[in-house]
Amino acid sequence: MQGLRERGRKESSALKGSRDLMRNRRSRPSPRPRSRRAVTRKKESTVAGRRPRAATGSAHQKMHEASWSREEALSFLESPDRATTQNPARLWRRVGLRPGETVVDVGAGSGFFSFPALSIVGPRGAVYAVDVSPELVELVRERAVRVGAKNLSAVLSTATRIPLEDGVADLAILANVLHGVPASTVDEAIRLLRPGGRLVNVDWKKLPTPTGPPVRHRLSESEAAAAFESRGLTRRDSFELGPDHYVLVFERPAPARRPRRLVSAE
After folding, report:
1. pTM of the shown model
2. What is the CATH number of the domain that holds 133?
3. Shortest CA distance to 235 belongs to which of 245, 243, 244, 246?
């Protein structure tokens, strides 16, 4: 009889503990669900392997966001200092841009490199100024209408998709964006190149400069080269563009030709 009473006390204690545990679980606040935006941000990574965090509100941070105003774009992206240190005419001469070619400017901003390219490719060529910012895309469209540039098209894209056909470009350029865009943007730029097409990467040197991103977020020439060469591109040239920037030029190899089958004359 005493054993039965002892067993009953144990079962009652266990039941009470179970009720207390359930009560605590119900009273504990549920974990906040992660937003879809937060999940997406975690999945995105830059070519350098991390998502750089520039100072809030800085001009550099805005270069990778769809948040430019027209005034900010024109004052920063079209500044006289930039025209001197990143001379577009010198760049296009060095990379050998020719009349009649098609250029895709990925991360075109206000069209700083796009409009000078248009003056070289001429009426038989074409320039696509691509950006994720609706404000900047509209700005480029208005500038193109104002100067009568019918063969310059402003294209709104996302970080993972550029709405242009495969192999449309003789030359694609990424200027000051490689360190801050996801790898999918680079893949898209390469997709747009025809076989034998060239990719031009302009970026900040990995050392302190008066403007630009924090040094820890920048890619050295060797790091940038590895990002493109690992995707099958062949390095063709490298040079400095002003005191703060380097330029790397790559080529998308043409597919190897299969040897022609010999036909017997007999």
Report:
1. 0.74
2. 3.40.50.150
3. 246
